[in-house]
Amino acid sequence: MPWRRFPLILLCCAASAVAFAQKPLDLPPVSPAVPAASSGPISLSVVVTDKAGHPIRGLTQADFTLLDNKQPAAIRSFTAHDLSAAQNDPQTLILLIDDVNANFTIVSTVRTQIENFLHSNGGKLPIPVGIVLLTDSGLSEIAPPSAEGNALASVLHQKDGQLHSIERSSGFYGAEERTQISLNGLGSLGKELAGVNGRKLVVWIGPGWPIFDNPNVSFGAQQQRNFFSGVVYLSGMLRQLGITLYSIDPLGPADSASPRTFLWESFNKPVTKPTKAEPGDLSLQVFVAHSGGTVEVGSNDITGAIEKCAEDASVWYSMDFDSQKADSPDTWHDLAVKVDKPGVKVRTLNGYYAQP
Questions:
Q1: Are 177 and 169 in contact (CB under 8 A)?
Q2: Could you tell me which residues come within 8 angstroms of residue 140 by beta carbon, excluding any fewer than 6 positions away?
């Protein structure tokens, strides 16, 4: 499965207390990995857990209520999925090592802990796992999806030479560069996963890219339109390809109290129009939360965090419904899935941009 760079969005902001010259923000010609957003059926992957985070099995369609913009929506089809029942439901877990936003030492630790995960259970993985690496050169595949964990760990160990310290501009311009590479990488990942059947769980192991929430950072109306277009495109791509995104911050407890770690929560409310769009709306953790995944921070146990994300593959529910048409393009619709059981938590896609 070849991996190609996919120039999705070049995020350029102007900044500085002294005032940098403002740089233009351009979206390259769109070569979408998936069809353009349109009205029609939407498929949801739904995870239901108890208060401790353990998956709840045995639910039926009668236990679920789906709301589209707070109005009940008819569930067209429903399936309960359970790996313990040996159901052959196609799922793939992709582990993405972020060599752009973390230093060499951190990335080396990540590699070691991924190997620990792959060796667990005697190296027999419940679903196929693939490993990819994000560097300045874009995405590259370390190992294609396989359920043979020991073989995957061996390949990863031999690829240690690919991990390296990246030298780039420091300060604002270095942060800008990392953001561009990261967003390009996310778009490229979607493009390649378009050919993979079934549900995809993508675990991005890295602290995420800069958010640029700074009073010295400025951007104009055209830049806001580009931010908004990027949000609409990437969120639509994740939805249409059946990708649930997860993030694991490998910086551990030392970084858990940093304002940077939770800054993304200020942008967790869906952006509804270009005039409200900011760079933070394109942050990794916001896409994670909106796709129904989890944000893992504050622990050095990367192996355990991967196992926690992978547990979402053990028990889940899928349902289809008809999206609503909108009067104008890219109209945000909130989605909510409720379960008629006490003390449960539901995670799934939190909305979509409706089209005429």
A1: yes
A2: 3, 132, 133, 162
pLDDT band of residue 162 (cuts 50, 70, 90) is: low
Give the pair of three-digit tokens for residue 264: 């993304």
What pLDDT score does 99 carry?
92
Q: Does residue 161 or residue 196 have the better pLDDT?
A: 196
DSSP result, 170-198:
-HHHHHHHHHHHHHHHHHHHHHHHTTS-S
Spatial separation of the C-alpha atoms in residues 90 and 198, rounded to whole Å: 5
State the Cα–Cα distance between residues 235 and 233, nearest whole angstrom. Answer: 6
Q: Tell me which residue of 5, 9, 6, 4 sits closest to 231, measured CA to CA.
A: 9
Architecture in CATH for domain 89-313: 3-Layer(aba) Sandwich (3.40)
Side-by-side strand order, sheet with 199-205: 138-148, 124-135, 91-98, 199-205, 243-248, 295-296
* Number of neighbours of residue 255 by Cβ within 10 angstroms: 14
Q: Which residues pair with 354 in a beta bridge?
A: 331
* Contact (CB, 8 A) for 234 and 28: no
Region 298-321 average pLDDT = 96
Cα dist. 122→6, 14, 117, 200, 201 in Å?
Answer: 37, 51, 10, 23, 22
Q: What is the largest CA-CA distance in the chain?
A: 62
Using the Cα atoms of residue 152, residue 153, residue 157 and residue 162 in order, give the sign of their dihedral.
positive
Q: What is the pTM of this model?
A: 0.90
225-284 pLDDT per residue, tens: 888 988 999 999 999 999 999 999 999 887 777 777 889 999 999 999 999 999 999 999
Give the C-alpha distances (Å, rounded to integers) separating 337 from 70, 236, 254, 329. 10, 19, 36, 24
Of the listed ranges 135-149, 211-225, 279-293, the least confidently predicted one is 211-225
Domain locations in the chain? 89-313
Within 13 Å, how many C-alpha atoms sit on residue 35's CB side? 5
Residue 83 structure tokens:
């790996």
Q: Using the predicted structure, report yes or no on whether residue 206 has a pLDDT greater than 90.
A: yes
